[in-house]
Write a structure and sequence with these properties.
The chain has an eight-stranded antiparallel barrel with strand order 1-2-3-4-5-6-7-8. The longest helix has 26 residues. It has four helices and eight strands. The protein is of the alpha+beta class.
Length: 205
């Protein structure tokens, strides 16, 4: 009898472990997404005072584990214009463009079968380019980096959970290598806080 119980226990354990492993494999999800973005700089700095709101688009991908933690990467392209009357203050440059790469950790909370939210924290790298007003064939380039914090509210479009629509919000802290002996001038040109919102589409594999 004891031998039969032992065999039964071992078989049951093997089945449960196999099912658990299968569930683990199925719950590892990767995805790609695309979104439209609106971004507004804040603070006492040249990006907030001298530039218009940025508009653009982005692409990204995530890998989510069964523990609802994951990693992700995004590329965003954002365009703006110098505010009328601020050309001299911003410098002899125009047509600001930001190439932004975000690397982040993410956590998912499943609210229901259709709705979920994700929180994100990570690191951002920026490459800003501007066109010289006196020579349209030359660009100035400034790089920067900083922390990013954000979240997404997702709605699942199909029963299989493959397609999702989402709203996103993010705060990016920007610091560049611009240096000036006057600390006030340096702080005005080398840092900012970017607040952005977006709507996007995600496809899960």
């Amino acid at each position: 009898m004891m031998k039969q119980l032992t065999v039964f226990f071992l078989c049951a354990s093997a089945i449960l472990l196999a099912q658990k492993k299968k569930k683990f494999d199925m719950d590892v999800v990767s995805n790609i997404e695309a979104k439209a973005i609106v971004m507004k700089p804040f603070g006492h700095n040249t990006y907030a005072k001298d530039l218009e709101t940025f508009y653009g688009f982005g692409f990204g991908g995530n890998l989510m584990t069964p523990l609802n933690f994951g990693i992700g990467i995004e590329y965003n392209l954002l365009l703006s214009n110098v505010k009328l009357g601020h050309e001299n203050k911003y410098g002899s440059i125009s047509s600001p463009k930001i190439h932004n790469f975000d690397f982040f950790l993410t956590h998912r909370d499943q609210l229901s079968e259709d709705f979920s939210i994700e929180e994100m924290v990570g690191y951002s790298y920026y490459l800003m380019s501007n066109v010289y007003t006196y020579d349209q064939n030359q660009n100035s380039r400034i790089s920067g980096s900083g922390l990013n914090l954000g979240g997404k509210f997702l709605y699942t479009l199909d029963r299989e959970g493959i397609q999702q629509f989402y709203f996103s919000a993010k705060v990016n802290f920007y610091y560049s290598g611009v240096f000036n002996e006057n600390t006030d001038i340096q702080n005005y040109y080398n840092r900012s806080v970017f607040v952005s919102g977006g709507i996007g589409y995600r496809y899960n594999f």
